[in-house]
Design a protein that fits this description.
Elements: H1 2-22, E1 27-31, E2 38-42, E3 51-57, H2 62-67, E4 71-75, E5 77-80, E6 85-88, H3 90-101, E7 105-110, E8 128-130, H4 131-139, H5 147-159, E9 164-169, H6 175-181, E10 188-191
Parallel strand pairs: 1-4, 2-5, 3-6, 7-9, 8-10
Antiparallel strand pairs: 2-3, 5-6, 9-10
Helix pairs in contact: 3-5, 4-5
Length: 194
């Protein structure tokens, strides 16, 4: 866990912050431990080691940063109530933060086009899907492996008030712009209750 913490909260976080700052914006690097931003709960009663899930989110530390125009870059390391650090799935953390902040959209970047009906066929991309269908794809095993936590995160964030969640291929040039500012988009948008 010490190595995970050094890499995620240290090296990787600072590389992302530096990249954003080098492009003219102001970023601030944080992890879930900072200011009690995220409280972890041990996943599976400890059977997964120091892997956790989000127990609580406290956005007080983020509000002044956002008001001043800073971009928070948050690594997914957080402490549990007993002070033990845990690694939490980054998609899960993003979804819980989006919900706590009352975000309009949650956008997850991945290395696939989005949710696929056939994981080996990029042309089977589902461009738009409702919550009920997303749950069904998990239940039937169509959504599995690394895509499963992403879709679960979308479902949870939408259930907590986020209006739309997107899963897009971060390898595509200008992926965010294409998804947000075009009618067609490039990934999968998960919407609606039910």
């Amino acid at each position: 866990m010490d190595v995970v913490e050094m890499v995620l909260a240290g090296r990787v976080n600072k590389q992302i912050v530096g990249g954003i700052n080098n492009h003219g914006s102001l970023a601030v690097g944080l992890c879930g431990i900072d200011g009690g931003l995220i409280e972890a709960r041990t996943l599976g009663g400890g059977s997964h080691g120091r892997v956790g899930e989000v127990a609580k989110v406290n956005i007080k530390i983020l509000s002044p940063l956002l008001e001043e125009g800073y971009i928070p870059v948050i690594s997914s390391v957080a402490n549990s109530s007993d002070g033990q650090s845990h690694n939490i799935n980054a998609d899960t953390v993003a979804g819980e933060l989006a919900a706590a902040l009352g975000a309009e959209k949650l956008i997850l970047l991945t290395d696939t086009p989005g949710i696929l009906m056939n994981e080996n066929d990029p042309s089977s991309l589902i461009e738009k899907i409702r919550l009920s269908k997303a749950r069904e794809l998990i239940d039937t095993g169509i959504v599995k492996a690394g895509m499963k936590p992403k879709v679960e995160c979308c479902i949870r964030s939408l259930a907590q008030g986020v209006k739309a969640a997107h899963i897009i291929d971060g390898r595509t040039p200008h992926a965010l712009l294409l998804e947000v500012f075009t009618d067609a988009g490039i990934g999968t948008m998960v919407i609606g209750r039910g």
